[in-house]
């Protein structure tokens, strides 16, 4: 029996959390007894179909070592190779993984700032993309009516939402495709992995994400994320 491609999670966690606005980097903000980052890593490390989890932290990170990651340490690799942008952190992580992966292995890039990732989203990505040559992303069709504003916060136009999706993570791509995309793209412009892969001319697949899989961006997001985490923990 051939083993098939492996599924390796890569979590960029080298940001500063400027919109969050705290002295402590956002990924270390406490949430339900652990740093935000722990929850994102644990959702991946505890999933039976994820082989390994690699986290990219900043070279001068002073916080990671002071937290307890022993619950997931057996499947976790810590890479001190953060970059100036999210895309650069991911690119550095991919470079570090090079000798451990094949071009066809799957890389699931997931934000450290998304602590409430349901296991079912990982299953949907892996199942939907199993035979795909490129990959795809978790995303949700936009539900709200969209308005474009002018400089005075007045509505300039109503934007048709048909066909519009909001991108989430994980974003799951073949290692070879993603590495090529991030080596060739403008790291200062790209905002997600799919964007870099699209720039190569590919059309990544959209896979249904989950509203619970929110990104903690502002301090106000912590309360909702805490509620969701607690609800998810009591339902499993
Ligand atoms: N990230 C990273 N390296 C960077 C910038 C961001 O690894 N140079 C990571 C963040 O730590 C986070 C993910 O990319 O896990 C998504 O980024 P975002 O939510 O925007 O976090 P920050 O960039 O830290 O926040 P902000 O944009 O408000 O500064
Ligand atoms: Mg950012």
List keywords for this structure.
two-stranded antiparallel ribbon, binds magnesium ion, globular, alpha/beta, Spore Coat Polysaccharide Biosynthesis Protein SpsA, Chain A, seven-stranded mixed beta sheet, binds cytidine-5'-triphosphate, single chain, 11 strands, 236 residues
In short:
By secondary structure, the protein is α/β, with parallel strands linked by helices.
Please provide a written account of the structure.
With 236 residues, the chain is of the alpha/beta class. The protein has one domain: Spore Coat Polysaccharide Biosynthesis Protein SpsA, Chain A (Alpha-Beta Complex). Helices cover 27% and strands 23% of the residues. The longest helix is centred in the last third of the chain and has 14 residues, at 221-234. The mean pLDDT is 96. Bound molecules: cytidine-5'-triphosphate (CTP) and magnesium ion. Residues 15, 86 line the site of magnesium ion. Magnesium ion (MG) binds next to loops.
Lay out the secondary structure.
Blueprint: E1 7-12, E2 30-31, E3 34-35, H1 36-45, E4 52-57, E5 76-80, H2 86-97, E6 106-109, H3 119-129, E7 135-141, E8 146-149, E9 155-159, E10 165-174, H4 175-184, H5 193-199, E11 205-208, H6 221-234
Parallel strand pairs: 1-4, 1-6, 4-5, 7-11
Antiparallel strand pairs: 2-3, 6-10, 7-10, 8-9
Helix pairs in contact: 2-4, 4-5
Bound molecules: cytidine-5'-triphosphate and magnesium ion (MG).
Cytidine-5'-triphosphate binds at residues 12-20, 26-27, 56, 82-86, 89, 111-113, 215, 217.
């Amino acid at each position: 029996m051939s083993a098939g491609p492996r599924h390796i999670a890569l979590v960029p966690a080298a940001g500063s959390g400027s919109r969050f606005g705290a002295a402590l980097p956002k990924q270390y903000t406490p949430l339900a007894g652990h740093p935000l980052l722990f929850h994102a890593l644990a959702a991946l490390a505890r999933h039976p179909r994820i082989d390994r989890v690699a986290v990219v932290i900043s070279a001068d990170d002073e916080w990671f070592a002071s937290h307890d990651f022993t619950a997931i340490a057996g499947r976790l690799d810590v890479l001190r190779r953060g970059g100036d942008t999210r895309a650069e952190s991911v690119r550095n992580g991919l470079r570090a993984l090079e000798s451990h992966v094949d071009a066809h292995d799957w890389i699931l890039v997931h934000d450290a700032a998304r602590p409430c990732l349901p296991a079912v989203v990982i299953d949907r990505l892996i199942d939907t993309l199993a035979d795909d040559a490129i990959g795809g992303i978790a995303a949700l069709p936009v539900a709200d009516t969209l308005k474009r504003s002018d400089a005075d916060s007045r509505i300039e136009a109503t934007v048709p939402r048909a066909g519009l999706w909001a991108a989430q993570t994980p974003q799951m791509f073949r290692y070879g495709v993603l590495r090529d995309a991030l080596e060739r793209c403008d790291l200062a412009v790209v905002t997600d992995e799919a964007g870099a892969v699209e720039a190569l001319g590919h059309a990544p697949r959209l896979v249904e994400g989950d509203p619970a899989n929110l990104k903690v961006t502002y301090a106000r997001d912590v309360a909702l994320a805490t509620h969701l985490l607690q609800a998810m923990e009591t339902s499993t």
